[in-house]
């Protein structure tokens, strides 16, 4: 499964016009949660602040279980790569509080590189 996740992300990152790739699921601590491990080789520049802020915001909603999340983001092939939990509530939280407010800015910065 990690190889399939990596292949899918690589394919998305190679597509013309793609500025960001957002994946959901597989960011927890269970043995099946392999998304961050699978995508680590693709990330040229980690953006640790994303995961830190996501866990801080999640703490307000789910309490101490927030530290179990390995949600994160980084730059891969000059594009934003985001890994979110599979929970619809977590995706909504990340979208509303982190991605929507900053996505255009990040994409603009990366386009200048």
Automatic annotation (TrEMBL):
Keywords associated with the record: Molybdenum cofactor biosynthesis
Pathway(s) served: Cofactor biosynthesis; molybdopterin biosynthesis
InterPro entries per the UniProt record, alphabetical: MoaB, MoaB/Mog-like_dom_sf, MoaB/Mog_dom, MoCF_biosynth_CS
GO biological process: Mo-molybdopterin cofactor biosynthetic process
Gene Ontology CC terms, in alphabetical order: cytosol
Domain MoaB/Mog: 3-106
Similarity-based family: Belongs to the MoaB/Mog family.
UniProt-listed PANTHER family: MOLYBDENUM COFACTOR BIOSYNTHESIS PROTEIN B
Protein name (database record): Molybdenum cofactor biosynthesis protein B
């Amino acid at each position: 499964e990690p190889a399939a996740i990596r292949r899918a992300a690589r394919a998305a990152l190679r597509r013309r016009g793609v500025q960001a790739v957002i994946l959901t699921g597989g960011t927890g601590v269970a043995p099946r949660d392999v998304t961050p491990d699978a995508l680590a080789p693709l990330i040229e520049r980690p953006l640790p602040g994303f995961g830190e802020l996501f866990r801080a915001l999640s703490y307000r909603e789910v309490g101490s279980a927030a530290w179990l999340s390995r949600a994160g983001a980084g730059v891969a092939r000059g594009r934003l790569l985001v890994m979110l939990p599979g929970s619809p509530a977590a995706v909504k939280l990340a979208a509303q509080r982190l991605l929507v407010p900053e996505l255009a800015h990040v994409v603009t910065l990366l386009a200048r590189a």
